[in-house]
Amino acid sequence: MDRVKINPEKCNKETHSGNDYLDQKFGKTGTSTREEFSAKALSFIMEN
């Protein structure tokens, strides 16, 4: 069986981090909407 060949250039263009998703949904780190989300997320985690 042949090994799968990974093209690093293609991976860099097509992969996204969780931080990229949060940036789109709640704004960049340091913005008021992102800070509000982070506070709510931390509160949720600490309650459970």
Description:
With 48 residues, the chain is mainly α. The mean pLDDT is 88. The protein is elongated and about 50 Å long.
Name some characteristics of this structure.
48 residues; mainly alpha
The total count of strands amounts to 0
Q: What percent strand?
A: under 5%
By secondary-structure content and strand pairing, the structural class works out as mainly alpha
For the sheet with most strands, the description reads: none
How much helix is in the residues? 55-70%
Mean pLDDT: 88
The poorly predicted ranges are: none
Provide a count of the helices: 3
Q: What is shown here, in short?
A:
This protein has 48 residues and is mostly helical.
Topology:
Layout: H1 8-14, H2 18-26, H3 32-47
